[in-house]
Amino acid sequence: MQNVDQYYPTSGRVILHVDMNAFYCSVHEAEDPEQYKGKPTAVAGSVELRRGIIVTCSYAARRLGISTGMQVQKALRICPSLIVIQPNFHLYRKYSNAFMQIAYSYTPLLEAVSIDECYLDITGSRQFGTPLEIAGAIQRRIMEELGLPCSIGVAPNKLLAKIASDLKKPNGISVLRLRDVPDILWNKPCNEMFGIGGKTAEKLRKLGIYSIGQLAAADEKMLVDYFGVMGSWLKRAGNGIDHGIVNPEREQSKSIGHTTTLPRDVVGLAEARPILLNLSDQVARRLRKQGLVAAGVQLTIRTPDMKTITRSRQLETPSESAEDIYKTVCEQFSKHWKGDKPVRLLGVTLQGLSPKEDSAIQLDLFDYERQPKKESLNKAMDMLRNKFGENAVLTAGMLSDSHSARLRNHKERGTSLQKDNLESVDPDKT
């Protein structure tokens, strides 16, 4: 093999950011290329009602004017031939695990940041070739073995690697070095910098800072006075500087949350209950997986006009139980939300997390007698889901009346029923 040391810095690191392109749609295309390959497709929550929101769409759909966040009804007016697909999160997780296993074979320093993207520190991976050769090999294998396109950024830090992966889509590889920052980034508006949202960009404009180059040259003290500690980060980001490391073992979560954009507007607690139970069940499972208990619960509600409210409440005692979480968020919903106001998004976040073994959990006599059975049941349910997928175990409360009727019908025919997915969907950034 050629000597590749010359391609690596004598100091510093080499970071890759692997970003799957139109991930959900690409997965369906890989599963059924005859039906979906090269066609305008979109994943959305509600196909039948046509009132859902586009979660992501294929590049063929994007070229026709379809975009993430668009209502399905509007998308179908723009493109009547659009194929709208309901989400299949079990399938997405399967492909996510598969592409990350490919990436992991080149370095153990892999940090998964979402279902469709990860960072890799390949500084110690010289035996596999140059950084571009490694990026090319990962991209090629993901396409050949899984049928999925991805874009990869190559850079000396995570921030620049993330930005680089967005430069060429779909299926591109881009290198972004510190010395490239002035030419490539400084003429762009601030909101095109990863980590700077619309509100922050608006605040920067009020300070006379419109471009990333102006941000890089701005007085740090002024930024700190205006933004607090974030001001120093903004100054560093403008200059392409990031000291974050690729951490394969993420620090203990400060919170665990799950949100879902609903396929249709929900009105009243009765309609919200199965969704809140599903969210409570999912965050509780993640909590147990990390061996933690939660001291507080936050409910998030967003309206169709994108107004968001959050309400938090402490639990009577730290808990890992979906039952406790569900009871609390239902009480919060009833207390803080009028029954006739529509809801488009719901979220449940657990706060005040601590290791279970370090928590003194007070139980009354009734709970004391029930606790071993509840823990055994939770372990059994978690084991079944780990082995057979999220849909392996459902509680009756997760099903709406129509779902319950379907369940009875399926039971009569001796078949099984999978629940409709109500999981959180992050619009893909590709």
Automatic annotation (TrEMBL):
The record marks 24 as: Substrate discrimination. Residues 15-197 form the UmuC domain. It comes from the Bacteria. It catalyses: DNA(n) + a 2'-deoxyribonucleoside 5'-triphosphate = DNA(n+1) + diphosphate. It holds the Pfam family IMS_HHH. Residues 420-430 have a biased composition (Basic and acidic residues). It is found in: Cytoplasm. InterPro entries: DNA/RNA_pol_sf, DNA_pol_Y-fam_lit_finger_sf, DNA_pol_Y-fam_little_finger, DNA_polymerase-Y, DNApol_IV, PolY_HhH_motif, Rev_trsase/Diguanyl_cyclase, UmuC. PROSITE patterns: UMUC (PS50173). The keyword Protein transport does not apply. Binds 2 magnesium ions per subunit. The keyword Cell division does not apply. The active site is at residue 117. Its cofactor is Mg(2+). Residues 405-430 are annotated as: Disordered. Keywords: Cytoplasm, DNA damage, DNA repair, DNA replication, DNA-binding, DNA-directed DNA polymerase, Magnesium, Metal-binding, Mutator protein, Nucleotidyltransferase, Transferase. Monomer. Belongs to the DNA polymerase type-Y family. Poorly processive, error-prone DNA polymerase involved in untargeted mutagenesis. Copies undamaged DNA at stalled replication forks, which arise in vivo from mismatched or misaligned primer ends. These misaligned primers can be extended by PolIV. Exhibits no 3'-5' exonuclease (proofreading) activity. May be involved in translesional synthesis, in conjunction with the beta clamp from PolIII. This is DNA polymerase IV. It comes from Paenibacillus borealis.
